[in-house]
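Session log. Operator J.P. requested a structure for one protein chain; no other inputs attached. Running the standard single-chain path with token output.
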Amino acid sequence: MTMRKNKTYADIYRLTAAIIVFIITLCVVFGIVSQYERVETGDAKVSTRSFYYDTAEKTIHFEWECFNSEVTSYRIYRSESGGNPNFIKAVASNEKLYEENIKENVMYSYWAAAYNSKTKQCSQMSPAVSICIDSALPIPALEDSAPELSFSCGDVGAYFLNWSVIKNVPITSYRIYKKVSVSNGEWEQVKGVESRRTSYSADVGTEYKVVAFSYINGELIHSKDSNTVKVVAMA
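Structure written below.
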């Protein structure tokens, strides 16, 4: 009698475990499907799949992807030195960009947008990815690098944070932090800004730091913290 009861409990346990595994599998499958649910091209999301500078060919390689909509071509935009994005070319849906004749010590920013010629819809541009090339310097790892932070005073008494560009490394954003507690060194994120930005408004009496981020092919990496700067009133 006892053996039969134990066998019944074991059967119930195995059945319960199988049901739990089945439910988890369904959640994972439907999660993946919903992540790439098909949408109109105007609502599609484009992300950077690959971006790097080929030192031998002196060429920027830029690849992008869009999983959740029908795309017939992509529109590529570029800016220099933090300017507004300008349309440079349209490419077929299976192509990528090879950008030659890059000027050194100039920050280039790139965006891609999906286009559907059947519906005449264009998606929002992907987040900017920016790079500034200096062939005299090695290509560093972002994790081992850090922006240099300073502040300045504008013509009308406004104050600004200013940070340096990490050369030869693609950047997709910066995050600005302010110190909220001197006693325990606690920091709070103030703002995330585009990679083409190298300045941000600041408050007198506040201490700041900046971190550079790169989000490419689903991998998020970041730099070391910049030096800290306390903004003080200037005569």
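Operator note: The chain has two domains: 41-132, 142-230.
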